[in-house]
Amino acid sequence: MKIGDTDIRGFASLAPLAGVADRAFREICASFGASAFTTEMVSAKGLIYGDRKSAELMALTQNERPAGIQLFCSAPEDIAKAIPLTEKFDPDFIDINMGCPAPKVTKNGCGSALLRDPERCGRIVAAAVKASRVPVTVKIRAGWDAEHPTAVETARICAENGAAAITVHGRTREQMYAPPVDLGIIRLVKEAISVPVIGNGDVTDGPSAKHRYEATGCDLVAVGRGALGRPWVFAQISAYMEGRSFAEPDIRTKMDIMLAHASKICEYKGERIGINETRKHAIWYTKGLRGKAELRRRMAEITALSQLETIAREIAEMNR
Ligand SMILES: Cc1cc2nc3c(=O)[nH]c(=O)nc-3n(C[C@H](O)[C@H](O)[C@H](O)COP(=O)(O)O)c2cc1C
Description:
Elements lengths: L1 E2 L2 E2 L4 E3 L8 H9 L5 E2 L3 E2 H5 L3 H7 L8 E6 L3 H11 L6 E6 L4 H4 L11 H14 L4 E8 L7 H10 L5 E7 L10 H10 L4 E4 L5 H11 L3 E4 L9 H9 L9 H19 L1 H15 L6 H8 L5 H14 L2
Parallel strand pairs: 3-11, 4-6, 5-6, 6-7, 7-8, 8-9, 9-10, 10-11
Antiparallel strand pairs: 1-2
Helix pairs in contact: 1-11, 4-6, 6-7, 7-8, 9-10, 11-12, 11-14, 13-14
The structure holds flavin mononucleotide (FMN).
The site of flavin mononucleotide (FMN) has 22 residues, from loops.
């Protein structure tokens, strides 16, 4: 598929994950063949008012391409002012968040709150397209609640106003992250618009990716939580889709990947913050392994990457 003129190769992109999919994680997922990347969400208003955190969130490297910067807003004038401020970070596209369910976002009329007002979504996209030098994409949910499944109407209005692709997480805001994912609504969106549709929600491996393509006709799938502690899921999905076999990395390799990931976080954020942020990833990487309780206890105490290396070696030994 394409976003504007940009080719999106492969079978699965990395979904945006605030607090998790920073540039270190995105680069690790890129090394396993993820198709495209989106930054953690950035407040358009925060950006306009010069919030310092925004620059860190928008930093993109050449190792994670094509990559979009994701913005959230409630008003067309905010997105129009914010987009020019993203240019120096050289995004390949701008993605507008119309799906975040967090009350701190929806109470200001942003994220999934927009799904209650498809006309407003259209005006936001129109303003974004006018302000942007790169294509504008949108990420939505099925609707606000089961009584108001506005995804199709919202997607249609966004596409009419120039959106280059739409990602659909097949859950309502009311559902938050509870099952099931509504594949029917992703299919209906795909049938309603001619720009590419990215199917999202609970794709975790090759079979679930293949099923998503077949059940919805989507042009790409986006994987979020399924990549936590297992960034090789993108290689596994590619292999499955191409009918190749895929060998799950052995424990030593998994620990090496975890260390490479931790090292990148420390490189980008400094060792103190890096080790702090690595803790949650280490829990995901060691899920189901012998010694994970001990690892978690020791992880809480470490302050340096070298200490994580020691723990990782011991875990690998214990689980051989
Ligand atoms: C920790 C976390 C952070 C998220 N942050 C964002 C975000 O910044 N922007 C966004 O559009 N969606 C965000 N999402 C939603 C995911 O992109 C995705 O739509 C959702 O998790 C369903 O896909 P999955 O089942 O593959 O995880 C987040 C989800 C989680 C669990």
